[in-house]
């Protein structure tokens, strides 16, 4: 599993626009990160809450639907949240424009 | 103001993949919608809480940053949420593939 994770991190790090990648488990604990640790902890806490909220929203609107991806576009950058079964991945990227 | 709203609606409705557009006032009350009313009110309630939470999260991570849009991708469709001072625009679209 960890070789897979390393491979994925390496693949994404080659893209110029990527500021950071974090792999966080379902309890909000960062498993892997390319960013500074304190910032990662902050993002982990915040993104975990948001992930749960988004999941609730989707299921509330339609119980047969599934939450697959979340993109938050902010002034400074774009945050991508990809939920998986045991963890979720957060990527920070600079938008092209 | 209502001419502006009509213009927004017309612009988004011309895209082929758009399943519905909802425009809310800052208190999450639907001003205009192209979807059925019960569903609109349901969307208004859940999306408003998600957008508020996401905006708070973004400012807690970085006080100079601001949330611009949220894209919530699910299996069946994609919900694009644009919060602003005078309205919250929600567009439900079917993904391209």
TrEMBL record, chain A:
The keyword Transport applies. One of its GO terms (molecular function) is dynein intermediate chain binding. It is found in: Cytoplasm, Cytoskeleton. Residues 5-93 form the Roadblock/LAMTOR2 domain. Keywords: Cytoplasm, Cytoskeleton, Dynein, Microtubule, Motor protein, Transport. The keyword Electron transport does not apply. GO terms for cellular component: cytoplasm; cytoplasmic dynein complex; microtubule. InterPro entries: DYNLRB1/2 (IPR016561), Roadblock/LAMTOR2_dom (IPR004942). One of its GO terms (biological process) is microtubule-based movement. It holds the Pfam family Robl_LC7. Its main location: cytoplasm. Belongs to the GAMAD family. Acts as one of several non-catalytic accessory components of the cytoplasmic dynein 1 complex that are thought to be involved in linking dynein to cargos and to adapter proteins that regulate dynein function. Cytoplasmic dynein 1 acts as a motor for the intracellular retrograde motility of vesicles and organelles along microtubules. This is Dynein light chain roadblock.
TrEMBL record, chain B:
InterPro entries: DYNLRB1/2, Roadblock/LAMTOR2_dom. SUPFAM superfamilies: Roadblock/LC7 domain. PANTHER family: DYNEIN LIGHT CHAIN ROADBLOCK. Gene3D superfamilies: Dynein light chain 2a, cytoplasmic. Belongs to the GAMAD family. Acts as one of several non-catalytic accessory components of the cytoplasmic dynein 1 complex that are thought to be involved in linking dynein to cargos and to adapter proteins that regulate dynein function. Cytoplasmic dynein 1 acts as a motor for the intracellular retrograde motility of vesicles and organelles along microtubules. GO terms for molecular function: dynein intermediate chain binding. Transmembrane segments: none annotated. GO terms for cellular component: cytoplasm; cytoplasmic dynein complex; microtubule. The gene is Dana\GF21526. The lineage of its organism: Eukaryota, Metazoa, Ecdysozoa, Arthropoda, Hexapoda. One of its GO terms (biological process) is microtubule-based movement. It is found in: Cytoplasm, Cytoskeleton. Keywords: Cytoplasm, Cytoskeleton, Dynein, Microtubule, Motor protein, Transport. It comes from Drosophila ananassae (Fruit fly). Residues 5-93 form the Roadblock/LAMTOR2 domain. This is Dynein light chain roadblock.
